[in-house]
Amino acid sequence: MNIRTHQENDALHLALNGRLDTTTSPQLDEAIRALAASSNLILDFAQLSYLSSAGLRVLLSAQKRAMSSGGSLRIRNANESILEVFELTGFSDFLTLE
Predict the structure, then answer these.
(1) Helix 53-68 and helix 25-35: axis angle, to 10°?
(2) What is the pTM of this model?
(3) C-alpha angle with apex 41: 71 to 22, nearest 5 degrees?
(4) Is the per-residue pLDDT at 60 higher than 70?
(5) Cβ atoms of 12 and 35 closer than 8 Å
(6) What are phi and psi of 65, to 5 degrees?
(7) Of 1, 3, 20, 24, which has the maximum CB count within 10 A?
(8) Which helix (H) or strand (E) is 82 found in, with range?
(9) Residue 20: HSE in the Cβ half-sphere, 13 Å Cα cutoff
(10) Is residue 37's pLDDT more than 60?
(11) pLDDT at 44
């Protein structure tokens, strides 16, 4: 998985490319922890092809960290299969999906 980052105003944007699974989820977790000078995170899933339960755990952790600091986590451009994972797991009830 590749992660491109850039800061825009008060939000940190991370664009993911590839698979977010057991092997790559530590990479995303580390990137969020290392780069999150902002409590507002935007994750662009336009190029993300797969999301596993390990990836969901990272998203849950990032959501909790963002909210505890008064910020937000938004997910953009998720494909239909990833949206289905969010629906089936209940994550769509508390994540902001754009």
Answers:
(1) 20
(2) 0.92
(3) 120
(4) yes
(5) yes
(6) -65, -45
(7) 20
(8) helix 80-89
(9) 29
(10) no
(11) 98
Tokens of residue 50, six digits: 């797969």
71, 36 contact by CB (below 8 A):
no
Query: Residues 86, 90, 95, CA angle at the centre, nearest 5°?
Result: 65
The pLDDT score that the predictor gives to residue 36 is 58
| Better-predicted residue by pLDDT, 97 or 40 | 97
Residues in CB range of 9: below 8 A, 6 or more apart: none
What gap in Å lies between CA 26 and CA 22, rounded to an integer? Answer: 8
Exposed, middle or buried by CB within 10 Å (0-12, 13-18, 19+), for 23?
exposed
- How many helices (H) and strands (E) the chain has is answered by 3, 5
Phi, psi of 70 (to 5 degrees): 80, 15
Most distant CA pair in the chain: distance in Å? Answer: 33
| 3-state secondary structure at position 37 | coil
